[in-house]
Amino acid sequence: MKKTAAALLLMTVPALTGAAVLQDTATAETTTHTKKLILHEQDSHRVGKYDFVGTDRVRSAATRDVIGYDSFTGNFNPQSKRAVIQAAFSFKGGIVVVRAHLVGDSRKFTGRILHGTGAYRGIAGTVSGREGSHNRTFLTMTYTL
User: Which residues pair with 42 in a beta bridge?
Assistant: First the structure.
């Protein structure tokens, strides 16, 4: 009986350590990515007293190449001076959906990544940025996959 228990214990130790190694390897593969983007508004339109919709051409801030497009919708609350904006970014391989808040006259916003499709399935992270001049917005996405 003692030999059987000892043998079982010896057989489970390698299995447990192997599982620990696999878990550490999977955790090590998660890396943080940062995309710095410049959004060039193509068109926008008011669809109510305080609601708006539009689309942007998305460029890489590093290369200035067009890397995608977005479609956005938003609502402005004049009492709180707060806007809530939702956008779907279409990149090669998938879509990233975000929700951001613009507060007051700061022209800065922050938000979070809600979900992604395709190559961006399982994405989690945040967005931040500021409105610029000439229908440009500067956006930073920080995320893990």
Answer: none
- Please give the Cα distance from 64 to 51 (Å, whole number): 30
3-state secondary structure of 62: coil
Q: What pTM does this model have?
A: 0.78
Strand-pair partners of 71: 55, 88
Rounded to whole angstroms, the Cα distance separating 50 from 28 reads: 45
Total length of the chain: 145
pLDDT digits (tens, 9 = 90+) for 33-89: 999 999 999 999 999 999 999 999 999 999 999 999 999 999 999 999 999 999 999
- Dihedral angle sign, alpha carbons of residues 70, 59, 52, 108: positive
What does residue 134 show for φ and ψ, rounded to 5 degrees?
Answer: 55, 45
Helices and strands, counts by H and E, the chain: 1, 8
